[in-house]
Write a structure and sequence with these properties.
There is one protein chain. This protein has three domains: about 60 residues, no CATH class; about 100 residues, Immunoglobulin-like (Sandwich), CATH 2.60.40.1080; about 120 residues, Orthogonal Bundle (Type 1 dockerin domain). The chain contains four helices and 23 strands. It is mainly beta. It binds calcium ion (2 copies) and zinc ion. One calcium ion (CA) binds next to helix 2.
Length: about 325
């Protein structure tokens, strides 16, 4: 509660004592535009108070949440820091978070279970990984909810998604195999961050009975496939051209195990014309097959059944369209 009254030039009270709810601070009140104004800082909030000098019963109070935009200048080993406002330079000492941690979860039904790169080796394109950030002071165990940024060094592998359907978790969507570092960083303290190495292992299914290689993703290279064999392999495209290690593998390519001479044929679901790219040409190839103009057979027929319902239909064309638009990546 603040009490105030009018005094004359000699410091004598000349009127009644008024009161208003609020606080005083070190800030000396000043007269501006016929109003007496001061502010009080508490935590990150600033409250401005004003009294109308022409009518002392008329007061006003304005709260500005997070009035200061603090940045850690120095911090001791217990997380006690000197912080300085980026905007006004105001400095104060306070405990801050000294630990930040990105936690990842998979969802099974309605249950979330925590994962990390050591316990979970089966991430695949199309998977959604839920995430939460925890920040706390390791001495006091007090939790902090400061702002943070998220950096991903390879957005081809994993992409950030805002929380969906009112969920409190944000998420990452796996786009392709590979490795990406996800870093969460406190906005208040550049030096406070956690980097999570996000590994999506390369996967393909080698069927030694049918001599096919399938369940790999668009963008898979000759060296990715070769890495699954113990001995040397040679890979040829649909024109019988021998490919180098960095070439991409599509449907209908021949992988020859050089020691045994066994030949495997590749199936990239969605790549119906065998050019190693999933695009509108593949939709057209499916359409022509549905219309009976140019029926798909063998591995090309297998590559066209995106939804795995054992028939080639307009649904498979739609699945390719979603893949092309990035709405839903064709996975295994
Ligand atoms: Ca294609
Ligand atoms: Ca189908
Ligand atoms: Zn400030």
């Amino acid at each position: 509660m603040v009490n105030y009254t009018k005094i004359d030039g000699d410091g004598n009270q000349t009127g009644k004592i008024y009161e208003m709810s609020g606080d005083l601070s070190d800030c000396v009140p000043i007269a501006v535009n016929g109003k007496l104004v001061w502010y009080v800082c508490k935590n990150d909030d600033i409250t401005f108070y004003e009294i109308n000098l022409a009518n002392l019963t008329s007061t006003n109070k304005t709260e500005v949440a997070r009035g200061h935009n603090y940045k850690v200048v120095t911090m001791d080993e217990k997380g006690y820091a000197t912080v300085r406002c980026r905007t006004c330079g105001h400095e104060t000492q306070r405990e801050t978070a000294d630990t930040i941690y990105l936690k990842l979860y998979m969802k099974s039904g309605n249950n979330f279970y925590g994962i990390n790169q050591y316990t979970y080796q089966d991430l695949k394109p199309g998977d959604r990984v839920y995430a939460a950030v925890s920040m706390y002071n390791s001495t006091s165990s007090k939790a902090y909810h400061d702002k943070y940024t998220i950096e991903i060094d390879d957005k081809d592998v994993v992409q950030y998604c805002d929380p969906q359907n009112g969920e409190s978790y944000f998420s990452f969507v796996v786009k392709k195999f590979g490795s990406a570092n996800i870093t969460v960083r406190s906005e208040m303290n550049d030096g406070l961050y956690h980097t999570y190495q996000f590994i999506v292992p390369f996967y393909c299914y080698i069927n030694s009975a049918n001599k096919t290689i399938s369940s790999f993703q668009e963008g898979t290279t000759v060296s990715d496939i070769a890495g699954k064999y113990t001995g040397p392999v040679q890979v040829k495209d649909t024109n019988d051209k021998v490919l180098d290690n960095s070439s991409k593998v599509g449907t209908g390519y021949k992988v020859t195990e050089q020691e045994t001479g066994k030949v495997y044929t590749t199936i990239l679901r969605g790549d119906v014309n065998g050019d190693a790219i999933i695009d509108v040409l593949d939709m057209e190839a499916i359409q022509k097959s549905i219309l009976g103009i140019s029926p798909l057979t063998g591995v090309y027929e297998q590559a066209s059944d995106i939804d795995k319902d054992d028939q080639i239909s307009v649904l498979d064309m739609e699945a390719i369209q979603k893949h092309v638009l990035g709405i839903e990546i064709i996975s295994r």
